[in-house]
Write a structure and sequence with these properties.
Length: 324
């Protein structure tokens, strides 16, 4: 570069014009930023302006950059949670749909009843039980009203004491019958007997005979006696008092009792083997009183096994026998 060119550039610089970084003349290239003093002064001035920012401003800028860097992971976590939530909703909806489909198929297409079995029956034949059982083949196994069906059988077949109905996959209904374990009899005014179970459900009316093993209920009258339904007694508390007696007989498995009676709350008795009357008084501590009477009976039998009379056990701590 000639001296004239340099002089011209200095004059241009004095007017505030920045010379180009690279000046081309033909094939020759030159970088004025390395040699030109005016350019160096201009760059120094620019650096000074940048450095003139206060320390507090630079600190705020650094903190701003730092906070921007911290917010990025939060956005990432939000996106991950949103994605997880969408997956949960999708799979939850899919599970509900599949469950609904299984239920619909189970109630319409699958689990049809093909077999009905009956066990435990002696008084009634299987044909008689099936005739009153409100369950049909080809019905859906899970739509059977087990409680209602059992009640229907007990009402129509009084000697059926209990009915258990079970579903056996894939296509069987199993019916288990328990027939009346203990029959009670009430003597009517016309000398006929009404047979009851220990819940006082009417089994049947029978003319003038007591079945083997039955227990006669003395000193009571029936208001109503409809077959398959509970009998209504004339006395206000008769049923309640009798129930306490029948419950203790069942619990203690007393097989030698032949009669019971409740005239009132303080006048109750059991008859043992048709020959000994256990006078119990009120209905408190029944088990203890009966145990005491049975213990005294065993001692009595050692000396006189055919003895007849009354074993007073109204006080379980003091038992005494009065012969007929």
């Amino acid at each position: 570069m000639s001296e004239e060119d340099r002089a011209l550039n200095r004059e241009l610089g004095s007017f505030g014009l920045e010379p180009p970084k690279i000046y081309k003349s033909g094939r020759e290239e030159y970088d004025y930023s390395q040699t030109d003093p005016d350019f160096l002064n201009l760059r120094s001035f620019s650096n000074e302006r940048r450095d003139s920012r206060s320390g507090a401003q630079r600190q705020r800028e650094r903190e701003g950059s730092s906070r921007k860097g911290e917010r990025a992971p939060k956005k990432t976590n939000t996106r991950k949670k949103s994605k997880l939530r969408r997956k949960i909703i999708f799979y939850g909806a899919l599970g509900v749909s599949l469950a609904a489909l299984v239920v619909v198929l189970s109630l319409t297409v699958l689990f049809k009843i093909h077999n009905i079995t009956v066990t435990g029956n002696e008084v009634y034949s299987q044909k008689e039980i099936m005739a009153v059982l409100p369950v049909e083949k080809e019905e859906n196994l899970f739509l059977v009203d087990k409680k209602g069906a059992a009640q229907k059988v007990k009402e129509n077949l009084p000697y059926v004491y209990e009915v258990k109905i079970k579903r056996k996959l894939p296509s069987t209904i199993a019916v288990t019958i328990t027939e009346t374990p203990q029959v009670y009899c009430v003597l009517n005014g016309d000398k006929s007997y009404t047979y009851l179970d220990d819940t006082f459900k009417v089994l049947e009316d029978h003319g003038g005979s007591v079945p083997e093993g039955a227990i006669v209920i003395n000193d009571v009258k029936l208001k109503t006696a409809i077959k398959g339904q509970k009998a209504a007694f004339a006395g206000k508390k008769t049923a309640k008092n009798l129930k306490k007696l029948t419950d203790v007989i069942k619990k203690m498995e007393l097989t030698d009792i032949t009669a019971i009676s409740t005239k009132d709350v303080n006048n109750n008795y059991l008859v043992y083997q048709g020959r000994l009357t256990f006078k119990l008084g009120n209905l408190d501590n029944l088990e203890r009183k009966i145990y005491a009477a049975l213990t005294a009976t065993e001692k009595l039998n050692e000396s006189n096994p055919e003895a007849k009379g009354t074993m007073t056990a109204s006080n379980d701590k003091q038992i005494y026998f009065t012969a007929e």
